[in-house]
Amino acid sequence: MTDETPEFRSALLTPPQVLEYWPTLEPHIVKALAVGVGEMTSFDICSQAMNGLMQIWVTLDSHNNLGCVTVTRTLQYPSSQHLQIVCLTAVHHSVSQMADQFHILETYAKQNGCQSLQVWGRKGWQRKLRAFRSIEGHPFKTQYIVFDQEL
Fold first, then answer.
1. What is the pLDDT of residues 118-131, one digit of tens each?
2. Burial, 75: exposed, middle or buried (Cβ in 10 Å; 0-12, 13-18, 19+)?
């Protein structure tokens, strides 16, 4: 590997690519969704990605092996817009090894009018995200903690 070759690189999949690679991607998305509370299924993600409502990103290592699958969506509010990471699952690597790939998402978010990159997740994500900084050096800050009471 040369200095010009990044160890990891990320790409946004087009809808035809989502369909082509879905058999490889779905098990990793299902694994990430399994630790949630069932807000959506892998089918929901696939259909929303096909309709442009969600984005599916792949991160490949220097040998073109899958390193990470990330699903994002834009949250639109009356006064702001944010890119939310819906799920992110590392494959044979750790998320911290691919920290620079968050900058790819950040750049996409800025180009699409978003004010921030958001992660909604379990409490353990606070620890994982602590070391991540934006291109301008901004850390992730805890804005909300969501409490849920089953009815």
1. 988 777 788 888 88
2. middle
